[in-house]
Amino acid sequence: MNIYVGSINFKMSEADLKELFEGYGEVGSAKIIFDKYSGKSKGFGFVEMPNEAEAKKAIEELNGFEIQGRKIIVNESIERPERRRDFRGGDNDRRGGGDRRDHYR
User: Fold this and answer.
1) Distance (Å, whole) CA 19 – CA 6
2) Which residue would you say has higher pLDDT here, 1 or 97?
C-alpha cells in the first residue's frame, strides 16, 4: 500500500521516515519529495508498505503523531490521473473553426 505522509519537518530524512514506519512492519520504500530547483524538502513524502494490514495500522496510529516538532498527516495515497503533457488549453472546434483571417474580414 502506498501511504502519503504530509506536514513533515523539513529536516526529516528518508531514513528517519523509513525508521518511523518500520515500527509497524516491513517498509518497501520511503521517499521525501524535494523541490527540483532549490533541493529543499517540500514537507511531504510517501511510504510503501507491502502488507496492507500493517500499512492500515501505521496510518491509524501515526496520523496526527508528533515527530520532530510537527504533527504529521498520514493517509492512504490516492493515485492522481495521469496529466496530459500536450494540453494547450481549449478545443479548436469550439472557436467556430475556419481560418483566423476570416475573423478579421
Assistant:
1) 16
2) 1
CA–CA gap between residue 74 and residue 69 (Å, rounded): 16
Cα distance between residue 1 and residue 91, in whole Å: 38
> By the 8 A CB rule, do 15 and 80 touch?
no
Q: Starting at the edge strand that comes first in sequence, how are the strands of the sheet with 73-76 ordered?
A: 29-34, 41-48, 2-6, 73-76
For the chain, the structural domain boundaries read 1-35+51-68
- pLDDT 10s digits, 61-99: 999 999 999 999 999 998 777 766 665 655 555 555 555
Beta bridge partners of 6: 44, 73
Helix or strand or coil: residue 29? strand
* Global confidence as pTM: 0.75
Q: How many angstroms separate the CA atoms of 63 and 6, rounded?
A: 9
